[in-house]
Design goal:
Blueprint lengths: L5 E9 L5 E10 L4 E5 L6 H8 L7 E6 L2 E2 L5 H4 L3 E4 L12 H11 L4 H14 L15 H13 L5 E5 L7 H12 L4 E5 L3 H7 L2 E6 L2 E7 H4 L3 H6 L21 H14 L1 H17 L3 H28 L1
Parallel strand pairs: 3-8, 3-9, 6-7, 7-8
Antiparallel strand pairs: 1-2, 1-4, 4-5, 9-10
Helix pairs in contact: 3-4, 3-5, 4-5, 10-12, 11-12
C-alpha cells in the first residue's frame, strides 16, 4: 500500500541558529512497519519526526509520503495520512473539554457531526478514556493527558502514527497501557524514544541516528542487544537486557543474548494473555460468542507457553 510509505532521500535541515539537525538522512519505511528511532540528545530524532507531516520541510533532498512528494502545496493532504503526537501532551490539548480536543481533527477533515461523534467515541474507547469526555484537559493526570493526545490523533484515522517520546510523562502502569495500545495499532508506526525497552516491545525495526544521519538500521532485537554499537552512540542496553558481568565494552554472545530475550518475552507473556481475555469479554458482549471462545483459547495457550519459555531459558544456561 503506497499510501503508508515514508521515504527520506538525502534530507538536509539547518535551524536558523546554524545547527545542522539533518545531514543527508535517507530512510525508507514501508506499509505496516513498526520503527523505533533512537539516538542521543541532539541526534536529530525530533527534527526527523517533524518532517514526516510537514511541520518542517527539508532544505534539500526530498520526502515522499505515500505517493506524494512533501512540500508546501501537499503538506495539508499529507497531514491527513500522518498523525504526529508531540512529546508534551499539553502541546496538543487546548480545547475546553476532552471531547472538543478529540473532535477538533475530525471536524477539520470536514466530517459530519454524527461521524465526528462516532470517531471521538471510538478513539476515546480505544485509549480507555471514554469516561473523561466532558472533563477539562488541564484537570487530567499526565497519563490521561497522553492517552487523550493519542486519541486526538487516532480519531482522524491516520495511516501512519508518529510519536515523540510517548512514555516520557507516564507512570509504570500508564506506560504499560500505552505499550499494549501501540501493539494493537496495526498501521505504520514511527516512534522516537530514549525508552529502549518500549522500542524493544513495540517496534520490530530500530534505526539509530547520530548527527542527523542513519548510523545503523535493522531488527530491534539485534540493534538493541549490541552493547558496543549502543555505547558508540551514547546509548545503553535496554534495562531488560542489561547484564552486570559484561567485560567492559564487550558484547553478549548469541546464547546469552537469546537468554535475555527469552526472559524479556516471558515477562510480557501473561500481560498478553490478559489482553486476549479482555477482548474475549468485549467480543462476547457484542454477541460474538464464537470469537470470544477462540480468544479465550488463545489466552490459555499463551499462558501454557510460560513453561516453554522457562525450559528454553534453562537450556541457554
Amino acid at each position: 500500500m503506497s499510501h503508508h510509505i515514508v521515504e527520506f532521500q538525502d534530507v538536509h535541515f539547518h535551524y536558523p541558529d546554524g545547527t545542522a539537525a539533518l545531514n543527508g538522512l535517507s530512510l525508507r519505511i514501508t506499509h505496516g512497519e513498526s520503527v523505533g528511532i533512537v539516538g542521543a540528545n541532539g541526534s536529530g530524532k525530533s527534527t526527523l519526526l517533524m518532517h514526516t507531516n510537514g511541520f518542517l520541510l527539508p532544505q534539500s533532498g526530498s520526502i515522499t509520503i505515500g505517493d506524494q512528494k512533501l512540500d508546501k502545496k501537499t503538506r495539508q493532504e499529507v497531514r491527513k495520512k500522518v498523525g504526529l503526537i508531540f512529546q508534551n501532551p499539553d502541546d496538543q490539548l487546548f480545547m475546553p473539554t476532552v471531547f472538543d480536543d478529540v473532535a477538533f481533527g475530525p471536524l477539520n477533515l470536514g466530517l459530519s457531526p454524527d461521524r465526528v461523534r462516532e470517531c471521538v467515541h471510538e478513539a476515546l474507547e480505544t485509549v480507555g478514556c471514554l469516561g473523561l469526555s466532558e472533563k477539562p484537559p488541564h484537570h487530567l493526570s499526565g497519563g490521561q493527558k497522553s492517552a487523550v493526545a493519542i486519541a486526538s490523533v487516532i480519531a482522524m484515522q491516520p495511516d501512519i502514527l508518529v510519536m515523540d517520546e510517548p512514555a516520557s510523562h507516564l507512570d509504570p502502569k500508564s506506560r504499560r497501557a500505552l505499550i499494549n495500545l501501540l501493539m494493537h495499532f496495526h498501521h505504520t508506526k514511527i516512534i522516537a524514544s530514549h525508552d529502549l525497552d518500549l522500542i524493544l516491545d513495540v517496534c520490530k525495526r530500530c534505526v539509530i541516528i547520530k548527527e542527523g544521519r542513519v548510523i545503523a538500521d535493522g531488527p530491534s532485537e539485534e540493534m538493541l542487544s549490541n552493547r558496543r554499537l549502543l555505547e558508540e552512540n551514547n546509548l545503553e542496553l535496554p534495562l531488560s537486557l542489561q547484564k552486570r558481568d559484561f567485560s567492559p565494552g564487550g558484547d553478549m554472545d548469541e546464547i546469552t543474548k537469546l537468554h535475555h530475550l527469552l526472559g524479556h518475552w516471558a515477562e510480557h507473556n501473561s500481560e498478553h494473555a490478559k489482553t486476549y481475555r479482555d477482548w474475549a469479554k468485549k467480543a462476547e458482549s457484542l454477541g460474538r460468542k464464537d470469537l470470544a471462545e477462540l480468544l479465550l483459547r488463545i489466552a490459555e495457550e499463551t499462558v501454557a507457553m510460560d513453561r516453554l519459555f522457562q525450559d528454553a531459558m534453562g537450556l541457554c544456561r
